[in-house]
Amino acid sequence: MEAPTTTGRITQRHRHATEQIRRELEYRLTYFAEHPDRIDDRLAELDSEWDIERSLMANASTLALVGTALALLGRRRYLLLSVLVSAFLLQHAVQGWCPPLPLLRRLGVRAQYEIELERYALKVLRGDFDKAKDERKKPEATLDLLGGRSAAHEERGAGKARRS
């Protein structure tokens, strides 16, 4: 059995919710194109937004803990809750889907790549990548621009540290 790709497994099964999330993104980008002074605040909000995987794990672990605690208090039937939630998590890991996903999608919980899409679209609106036009043929400059460190940059830093 072949598992769906990470980026496609959530949006493929929930097209209506995905379209709604996409429309909301377009609305936000239109707003921030008109109000570029508010982009930094939105980027800060995105840093704390939970993606669907994190939301699913947090909810599942909460339900599993509650089920286990109630079972330990003598209500054995609640052990079934822990087993059921664990089965859903396994199903999600293998198939990329589980019963709570449609609800989370309808509530507007986004996949990580959807959050990152908004983040980079906002950075484009802010002009972060304008600097890359002159430097686009230099991988080191491109990685630095994106917040990563190039291997050459790291080696130079390590060489300086060894010489010190």
Automatic annotation (TrEMBL):
Residues 131-164 are annotated as: Disordered. It comes from the Bacteria. Residues 131-141 have a biased composition (Basic and acidic residues). This is DUF2892 domain-containing protein. It comes from Alkalilimnicola ehrlichii. The lineage of its organism: Bacteria, Pseudomonadati, Pseudomonadota, Gammaproteobacteria, Chromatiales.
